[in-house]
Amino acid sequence: MYRYTEFDTAFLAERTRQFRAQVERRIDGHLTEDEFRPLRLMNGLYLQLHAYMLRVAVPYGSLDAAKMRQLAYLAERWDKGYGHFTTRTNIQYNWPKLRDVPDMLDALAEVGMHAIQTSGNTIRNVTSDHFAGAAPDEITDPRPVAELIRQWSTDHPEFQFLPRKFKIAVIASETDRAVMKSHDIGVKIVEQDGTRGYEIWVGGGMGRTPMVARLLREFLPEADLLPYLEATVATYNRMGRRDNKYKARIKITVHEHGLDAFRDEVEAEFPDRRAAFTGVDQAWLSDIRARFVTPTLSERDAAPYYAARVTDPVLRAWADTNVVPHRHPDHGIVSISLKAHGATPGDASADQMQLVADLAEQYGHDDIRVSHAQNLVLPHVALADIPAVHAALREAGLATGNIGLASDIIACPGMDYCALATARSIPVAQGIATRLEELKIEHDVGHLQIKISGCINACGHHHVGHIGILGLDRAGVENYQITLGGDASESTAVGTRTGPGFAYDEIVPAVERLILAYLDLREGPDETFLQAYTRLGMAPFKSALYDHEARAHAAE
Question: CA separation (Å) from 421 to 253, 351, 416, 528?
């Protein structure tokens, strides 16, 4: 966890002071809503269907106990007792009163948190691998690099009014746990001939026109990262379209001009940008690494954990899905599902947040992560302590053993909260998860990613779901399109639409038919849904979806 400086503290205090004055001017009528809108968006404040929504940044998904407790306090003090963790690893509060928002920002600043650049046409919260610093397959912890990018991009004077919002992810392993290729820029830490550097990917994104990022630079020396990123964003800022917001993302810029032409512009821009840095960026990164506190893990006897697995089948089933190997062999990485069957994906109550903070302090070296899948992670837990962690989670209703299974659904807030949404997402996710629990089949089904968006903006990542669901408005009626074959891993792929959409009361049975068809079609339990789809293609799954409908209509 990065430890912030006195400069950071003073910066946040001044930023909140300015926004407090802006809020007062809005309340007393000196600012219209149109005038206030760009000011509030710069501070992460949206106006949703029913109330304002404050989106708080959790940079690269890292929290400690103090930060988590403060998030719980905000939920209790100024919201309705809960917060919603998002696919950008942020947390959203859906019910604050405008007058209270500056107080909320002051409370966040007390623990080094803020809501800056969680909205607007600027560089949004930088995300990373939620197993960073613990995963056995990573080259190095990518979070210091993510922090470097966060500091560089925060209030960058050139990039506050980009053609469209801009998202960056950083990873350091061959396994992509951050959906890096669905970002405007993806940074992958690599080694080439013993020298560390970066792969730079560009032009990924979801939304109206989903695209997978393309390789911009195969190997970028470590010292060149910030100036090269600056050259890339500056090129987009200059070339990106501002005449049509649906064609304003960098993915469209790269597509329309071609990757080679875009690369040529970046490379032409790069020398002047590089010269302007004069090495200050490397001193900056060195200081960040020095201020990055990582836990020292001691040897622990793991025998109690393995003994508990034998005697406690509930623990064993939960650990099989929610605990993965740590780089330190007598530790584990524990994922805490925020997807209890029938619950709202990503929601956590203040009490649950308090408990996770307690567990992080007692068992997890004061380290908590938020994943893009809207779950929480304790990345450093001794195996010997996992039975105690599991027992505490069970008592708080947080011991759902479904990480990576079909009920571990990503879903946006949809029409229950969002002013942009055209359909409900949360009830669909709840309905699917509840039905899976009734059927008792999801452990047999195995790894299956279902992702749901309530509008074309794709905040629920439906394009890269093995089963993706997009809710749309058709003449005032909710209609849900299904896509199959999306992939959010290092083999990133955009799913293919199956055909006509389904009504609200038809979508859960449709998903059930898909899953049951997979169980009939697979070659064995080791063949995942995505593997079966890749082998068989669309036809048998489309038949499961629509032949049933045709038979039902014929019977009528």
Answer: 26, 29, 8, 31
Residues counted in the chain: 556
pLDDT of 555 reads: 44
CA angle at 451 for the pair 448 and 455, rounded to the nearest 5°: 165
Q: Which residue has the tokens 């009490």?
A: 351
Residue type at 285 in one-letter notation: L
Residue 328: is it exposed, middle or buried by C-beta count within 10 angstroms (0-12/13-18/19+)? middle
Q: Could you give the 3-state DSSP secondary structure of residue 133?
A: coil
Q: Which residues pair with 472 in a beta bridge?
A: 479
pLDDT at 49: 87
- The residues of the chain scoring below 70 in pLDDT are 548-556
DSSP state for residue 247 in the 8-state scheme: G
User: Could you read off the pLDDT of 87-113 as tens digits, one per residue?
Assistant: 999 999 999 999 999 999 999 999 999
d(CA 245, CA 243): 7
Give the list of residues 6+ apart from residue 550 with CB closer than 8 angstroms, or none: none
Residue 54 CB contacts under 8 Å (≥ 6 apart), including other chains: 44, 45, 46, 92, 93, 96, 101, 104, 115
Within 8 A by CB and 6+ apart from 279, the residues are 223
Identity of the residue numbered 394: R
The candidate with the shortest Cα–Cα distance to 127, out of 141, 147, 108, 105, is 147
Q: Which residues contact 280 (CB under 8 A, 6 or more apart)?
A: none
Task: Write out the two tokens for 480.
Answer: 């849900």
Question: If you ran DSSP here, which 8-state letter would residue 406 be given?
Answer: T
3-state helix, strand, coil in the chain (%, to 5): 45, 20, 35
pLDDT digits 0-9 by tens, 198-222: 999 999 999 999 999 999 999 999 9
